[in-house]
Amino acid sequence: MAVLSRYPVLATAERPLPTLPGHRDDGKTALHALLDVPGGPLPFFTTHLNSGIAESAVRCAQVRELAAFVAEHARGPFPPVVTGDFNAEPDFDEVRLICGYKTAPAVPGLVLLDAWRFADPALPQGTWDISTEYAVNFGARPSRIDYILVGPPGPDSRGWVRTARRAGDRRTAGVWPSDHAAVVAELALPQPSLKLRGA
User: Does the pTM exceed 0.85?
Assistant: First the structure.
């Protein structure tokens, strides 16, 4: 895993993620980079959770640790941005837990919005198994298991998800870049406060 940024990185941190008894420790971690973007520092995180089809409980434990890590480092004018391969579809317990608005949040007060909520519904949604029709997945279609999650925007709309889409979902010179499509989101910079007048 890595965080690549065109903007300066002000600080970094790493957190190992847990496993549970009876499950292999795959050495999963979460990374944090505080990015010096226009409008102020942005707390950015990325991770890759366990992939076993029967490891939802492990992923839930990993998400709880990830949420604590995010809460520790989510400082600054921008909401936190959490990205990664969660190996879980949007309705799975571990995704509901990290988002914290369809169930109690993993850390009180930490709510993350799935950027895909802001995508054009007509766009293809699958991010995994895009290149092979015979790979095992969670259904008869490509699964969406890769995410950009963003905290609620501030009052100046800083960090609001403006758009979301897939990328890397076509062959280049006959070769797939990955069996995963990338998720791309555009976030808003701060907007001047509006002055409203009463009638």
Answer: yes
